[in-house]
Amino acid sequence: MQNSVGSLMGDPKVRRFLKLLSDRGFVQESLVTINGMEKKLFRFGPQGTLLRKNIIKEWWDAVVSHQVNTFCLESSPLMIKTNPQNTSSSTESSVRLVSLDSSSNPVDCALRASLSKECLEAYLSSLQMTSGQLPLSLASTGQCFNLKTEDKSSDNNSKLLNNGLCETHLLSQHYLPPVNVAQAVEFWTRKRLSWWKKFSTNPSKICSSTSSVTNGNKTSISRTIIGYSFPWGIEPLETIDNHGNSPLLDLESKSGPSPQVRHDKAVFHAHLLECQTSVESCMAAFLTDSYREKTVKATSSEKKQDIKKVLQLHPLLCPYHVALSVTGSKKKEVFILSQHVAKELREGNLSVLHLPRNSDSMESQYRRNDELGVPYTVVLSDQTLESGVIIIRSRDTSLKQQHHIKDLQSILLTNLHPTELVK
User: Fold this and answer.
1) Other Cβ atoms closer than 10 A to 282
2) What CA–CA distance (Å, rounded) separates 220 from 310?
3) Cα 50 from Cα 28, distance rounded (Å)
4) Which one of 88, 93, 158, 358 has the minimum C-beta count within 10 Å?
5) What is the dihedral of CA 71, 77, 82, 86, to 10 degrees?
6) Alpha helices, H only, 230-381
7) What radius of gyration do the chain's Cα atoms show?
8) Distance CA 298, CA 310 (A)
9) What is the tens place of the pLDDT at every residue in 211-247?
10) Dmax of the chain from CA atoms?
11) 380-407: buried (b, 16+ CB within 10 Å) or exposed (e) per residue?
């Protein structure tokens, strides 16, 4: 039996986690009603925006940059409706655009619910790029609108980053010869599972299952679902759909050129394998997975035990790799030095949190950086001016070590997986 987030909201740990995400600029959620449907709007602060940027980059590197014959697409979330009379789809919302030129007729459009259609429509032109040879892949990222009517008995509005009115989808389509489909399904399932587990502090919470489902065209397809075990139950993160050749047969019936492919004297329609997730699903899984709490002993008999909150985000996803803090009696001089240090670290491909001088205690700064998911805090002090000694404090262990400032960048790069951070 799965618990809903609604039933878990009474859990103080869940409330503290959601408050941290809001207070620290990751995400704020609000409910809106569209045509009688309740949907959520997401507002991403500075840390959430950086996290999203890093997620997209890692997805792009894995799916596009390191793959052969992969082509990128981008288009408007507004789609021109070729059959305005057809309003059977409950996932689309109609919009009428009127040209300023009075001689032009109004254009009926729809807010797209998926990136699949525009990728499929680009298949023929992409096939020319490979001289008609398979395999080839198409990849696209972009905003899509969720206008599906939810089951009133569901608790989706209570789940983190779920049931959003607008979400950023990440889609890859792989067009294959029929003989290569089984091998490709195994390859992409293994590859995508590996990608999700790479960024998880607890990979055992990432799981997969395969079943037959019926798609929107009433066609049975094989679907693999990659899911994550949230506190309220397992939720899907990504789908890997084996559509067979049905989408290409449908494309042939609608287009002039034949999308058939010749290979080894055989003529066939390509089979389509489609992998789809969203940035919001990634954020929900990685933020939930990274959240930790530690009880700090009270310093006096009158003070209650304190709870330290930490986001142990993967170094490739965290908003900042390192934070710089200044302390001592010569703060002005040390701050000037810290500006030069920040510049050198950024030139070394490290993202740096370097805030103006403030009066917060070092302990308060450590806590803030832990809640932001910053792996390392570097403290510069009077001793740094005198002898070059700095303190490097680890987010995950809270251990503080002294090093010479000249070794700072190499130490950080070594601890933050240099083969992946250094270009």
Assistant:
1) 27
2) 44
3) 15
4) 88
5) 130
6) 246-254, 279-290, 331-347, 362-372
7) 25
8) 19
9) 988 876 677 899 999 999 998 889 999 999 999 999 9
10) 84
11) bbebbbeeebbbbbebeeeeeeeeebee
Taking CB atoms within 8 Å and a gap of at least 24, the contacts of 178-185 are 178/245, 178/268, 178/271, 180/134, 180/135, 181/242, 181/244, 181/271, 181/273, 184/135, 184/273, 185/222, 185/224, 185/240, 185/242, 185/273
Q: Alpha helix locations (H) across 313-381?
A: 331-347, 362-372
pLDDT tops 60 at residue 377: yes
Is the predicted pLDDT of residue 183 greater than 80, yes or no? Answer: yes
Which strands sit side by side in the sheet containing 400-404, from one edge to the other?
352-353, 322-326, 376-380, 389-394, 400-404
CB 352 within 8 A of CB 368: no
Report whether 159 contacts 9 (CB < 8 A): no
Three-state SS sequence of 378-405: EEECHHHHHHCEEEEEECCCCCEEEEEH
What pLDDT does 98 receive?
A: 52
Alpha-carbon distance of 282 to 75, in angstroms, equals 22
Paired tokens of 10? 């009474």
Two structure tokens written together for 339: 């500006």
Residue 183: CB atoms within 10 Å: 10
pLDDT per residue as tens digits for the range 350-374: 999 998 877 789 999 999 999 999 9
